[in-house]
Specification:
The chain is mainly alpha-helical. Helices cover 55% and strands 11% of the residues. It has a two-stranded antiparallel sheet.
């Protein structure tokens, strides 16, 4: 058990370092999670974020606020879908 807890702490430290490198250290947990999801997947929409089991603990409005924060700070880009004009495709702004 002690080894597992120690490993968990090492992973948390590594995650913290990665978040600092991306400049995410001041962001909320949900903003960090949404950023990670968008930057590691393609054709991401708010609906696809909400449908992922990891995000079941967050409300739709919380996810929308995180996306709005990321887009208004030019971290994430939102482009209208060519298939469904009601949806916005979210992508990492490089």
């Amino acid at each position: 058990m002690k080894k597992a807890v120690s490993r968990l702490f090492q992973l948390r430290k590594a995650l913290d370092e990665c978040e600092k490198e991306f400049g995410l250290s001041g962001y909320s947990e949900v903003e960090k999670a949404v950023f990670s999801f968008i930057s590691s997947n393609s054709n991401v929409t708010i609906t696809s974020i909400k449908n992922d089991p990891y995000f079941s603990k967050y409300s739709l409005s919380t996810i929308k606020r995180a996306v709005l924060f990321l887009t208004s700070n030019n971290i994430v880009r939102a482009d209208q879908s060519t298939l469904d004009k009601r949806e916005m495709i979210l992508s990492f702004q490089k």
